[in-house]
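Replying to the earlier thread about multi-chain prediction with a worked example.

Input:
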Amino acid sequence: MSERSSEGPPGVPGTDAAIRTVGLSKRYGHTIALDGLDLEVPRGEVFGFLGPNGAGKTTAVKLLLGLAYPASGQGWLLGAPLGDRRARLHVGYLPELFRYQPWLTAREVLGLHCRLAALDRARWAEAVDSALAAVGLADRGDDRVGGFSKGMQQRLGLGVALLGPPDLVILDEPTSALDPVGRQDVRRIIRELRDRGTTVFLNSHLLTEVERVCDRVAVVDHGRVVATGTLPELLGGSTVALRATGLSADTIAGLGRFGRVRLDGDRLEVEGIAPDEVPDLVAEVVRLGARVHAVEPLQQTLEDRFLALVGREPAA
Amino acid sequence: MSDILVVAGLTLREAVRRRLAWALLFLTVLVVVVTGWGFDRFVQLARSDGVAETQLRLGVSQLLIMVAFMFSFVLAMIAVVFGAPSVAGDVESGVSLALLARPLRRSGLVVGKWLGLMVIVIAYAVLSGSMEIAACAWITGWVPPQPVTAVLYLAGEGAVLLTFALALSTRLSMITGGAIAVVLFGLAWVIGLLGRFAALFGVESLQQAAAVSQRLLPSDTFWIGATASLEPTSSQLAQAGIAGPIATGRFSPFEVAGPPAPAELGWALAWIALVLLLAVLLFERREI
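Result:
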């Protein structure tokens, strides 16, 4: 994990990265929405973009897609500078708050986006059918969008984002209106995208979902990235607690190779231990003459880490 | 060009899907039937009183100008109702978020919307204006001197208001843009009317104010053109035994001296192009 320093990464174009920003800033009047955002999203990964309300997540997405303009800083989308229209040919986007033309059918909305994404006309029918099937709307394709529930509109939005197929899919709160079945579908779709080598940029408040599908995460607060890394990096390894009798400060000195060790009465905590080393730790404790009564893994959740990073400690 | 045609096509499809085209067609027929009935009553009454046919047609010509005035007002309102939400509505509802994240040019979106709505406004003006004049001719026998030109001038007035309201909608909410367009249209009309009063009484400053207003929002230029095309010619007036005031434009402030000068008409057309360009430039920097 790399905690964000006050200096940004070197200002060279990240042609290999799906998304790269260097010192991206944005103000709305007196409000600072983004304050020097440095971000790098590797290609082919599912990247979670987390932050509390008002942290600047949606603003960052809008800057990436040319829907708003930065006050300073630079950015590249699929290797092209921000604002490059050709790069957007290969990007699928599901906005957080959106609406499609209610007087069009789902099939017509998808057809329109096939055209806007400059897909071969010969491929439209197949692309539309495939997108409808992927999001579970195969039997509603000829219905007008105006009659769709919010959840169905979100499914359609996801289908629109899948057209192409794109090299990068940006999903802004993709499951906010979905039922559990819909959420499971979204997770499946994200995994299928990753299997195809598509980069997914997932902006979500649902940390458990991020935890389940993301390879890498960035936490943003007050317009800046405060932490970024893979999930194991971000969560800092695991902690294991043992209830054991017959241990003393002298006898545990040799356990330091497993991690940071703390003994409190008959409770022994080892922080930062690799999960596959836990049996070795237990064996070593027994070898030292102690009796082990319980072994309890203490995995830090993404929510705990997130709350700590944005300055709101998790509730006890 | 492709972007423009995609958006224009989408706009036209929306008009059909939302039954706007059918509503306008129905209202056109309704207006033509009601005013036609009015023309018929007027002619029947005048003929039963023994009014000469030339005098009667002169009276019908004035009635037709009044109907055209009402129609021009309705057309202007329709143009504002179409133009004010055109861009702002999509931005406010979130429709434009998904569209503009695609490689769609913003100029394509603005010009495409304008083109699609312009087709509707002009089609409505031409269809409705032509049917009205045709109904009047069939019922009363009066055919204005330049019916085609009159209809085109009316369409031009709609084009001015549509372009103006659309330009406002690239930056303002639909309600604000619509209110501004309606009030300024009314103001331009009143100033134009006062200018013709001023011409009657020789008040130069008021005439100059009207000329400036006509440059800033040239809807009145097209209304003057439409009126001039509907007014009886000098020979028709002479046949009716009238000469002088009405033929020189000093008969009433609702009469005009003649069609707009080519320079005025040229400016009004250039104004439409410039305001459309301004709309594109304003929307290019708009944050969605």
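DSSP finds nine helices and 15 strands in chain A.

Feel free to reuse this layout for your own posts.
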